[in-house]
Amino acid sequence: MTSPINPVLPGFHPDPSVCRVGEDYYLACSSFEYFPGIPLLHSRDLVHWTQIGNVLDRPGQLHLPPGTPASGGVYAPTLRYHGGRFWLIVTNVSGGGNFIVTTTDPAGPWSDPLPLPGVHGIDPDLAWDDDDGTCYCTTAGVNQVRLDPETGRTFGEPYPIWSGSPGAKAPEAPHLYRIRDHWYLLLAEGGTERGHAVSIARGPTPAGPFEPCPRNPIVTHRGIDHPIQNTGHADLVQAPDGSWWMVLLGVRPGGGTPGWHVLGRETFLAPVRWDDDGWPVVGEVPVELPPLRWPLYPAAEPPVRDDFDAAELDPRWISPRGRTVDQVTNKVRPGWLTLRSIFVGRRQQHRSCRVRTKIDAAAGTGGLAVRLDDRHRYSIEASEGAVAVHAVVGTLRTVVEKMAVQPGPVVLRIDIVETTGDWDPLAGPDSLTFGIEFFDGTFCALATLDGRYLSTEVAGGFTGRVIGLYATQGTVHADWFDYEPLS
Ligand code: 6LW
């Protein structure tokens, strides 16, 4: 059974990295080609998370050139608290490589990037040896180099420290911790697809030599009949009561075979205990979490409606490669979001959900889209006097259905319904119905499309679905946007 708690961060929230300061937990995820980049979330219990900002929210911090492909951009951060400051190290694979940003307030602002020309490879980790203050940077592969995190200067050439289990591909996502008498090196391996896994090794120094855990991999769902797959890329954190927890990514494939996941890689939580030999034992994922040992505060559910009345756009709204205030603003028409040549969306976080918007397309063309990437998207689009459903799947582009409507604002709606019922090898993961809603609430469906074409298994890459508003021509205004979870 899927735990009612996991995933703790549903939707496209991959490569979680977590740290704790007092009673507060902070978590960062990869954001790839989207701007603003690196969502930053806060929690008091590791279960309920609120996005308090984005680490890279100024164009000067995150350069995503116009040609940045899907799943380019910003990969796999490590978030740590050290010496009174938050440190985040990350890679921009589309330009700039590895860099560090810091802050005293994780809600921002974060510093400008400090480039790390001597750090090569993705998935950088930062760890400090509190005995002598040395900072170690470890990257996928697995290689390590000593680093001055204040200047970005590295000392010597990177050296290999452990390459994971024999024969396993893609040793990556290293995180190094000093726990009691050992240095532990946590690693993802097997690739981020169905073979994904988490392994661990330990040694007497930050550079090893590392001895692998005899029970590796300590987490994997490869080859088992389970609704959650691809589990890997983990980070560890200790709670104030001394208990240990793991955050990790996983996916929830739907439909028949081979299974399609549409929400991207999501963040899950699992309890960790230590065995008598000092190795971690990770609860089954998903886990029925034991009763939480400290007070819960109310779950941060997404607002059902964004009225676009707030001075600033909610941090959950993201756009591929960047956006300017000329492209997305609520200053032109108060209470409405005005769009020009842009897509702005939020993560689809529920397998079944309904999204609606009231659009005024009298001076342009635009609407509501479900986007896996530029080449995999469905949309319902309004222009003066007409509404059309479009599908883009790879190099195929088609207008699925078109309908004349009265001039004036129109309510566009998409119903996404996950596939349930008897297992059918041919069934897709979900269906998406596009239509318009009349002002008396009646719905007129124009088209229903198979969701498999907006899945990672079809599109490839590392992201998940994002749903939102767009304008292709002229200016389009949206009065409000509703996101209603149905599962
Ligand atoms: C990443 C690697 C991975 O950098 O996928 O799941 C890559 N793990 O560690 C992109 O997120």
For this entry, give a set of tags:
globular; 487 residues; hydrolase; mainly beta; Glycoside hydrolase 43 family protein; 35 strands; binds (Z)-L-Arabinonhydroximo-1,4-lactone; 5-stranded antiparallel sheet; single chain; 12-stranded antiparallel sheet
Write up this protein.
- Helix content is 1%, strand content 49%.
- The chain has one helix at residues 456-459; strands at 17-21, 24-28, 34-35, 37-43, 50-56, 74-82, 85-92, 97-103, 114-115, 125-128, 135-139, 143-148, 153-160, 172-179, 182-189, 197-203, 211-212, 219-220, 229-238, 244-251, 266-274, 280-282, 305-306, 319-320, 328-329, 337-339, 342-347, 353-373, 376-383, 386-393, 396-404, 410-418, 430-437, 443-450, 466-485.
- The strands form 7 sheets. Strands 23, 25, 26, 27, 28, 29, 30, 31, 32, 33, 34 and 35 form a 12-stranded antiparallel sheet that branches. Strands 14, 15, 16, 17 and 18 form a 5-stranded antiparallel sheet that branches.
- A hairpin with a 5-residue loop joins strand 33 and strand 34.
- The longest helix has 4 residues, at 456-459.
- Residues 285-301 have low confidence and may be disordered.
- (Z)-L-Arabinonhydroximo-1,4-lactone (6LW) is lined by residues 14-15, 30, 75-76, 122-123, 172-173, 188, 192, 232-233, 249, 462.
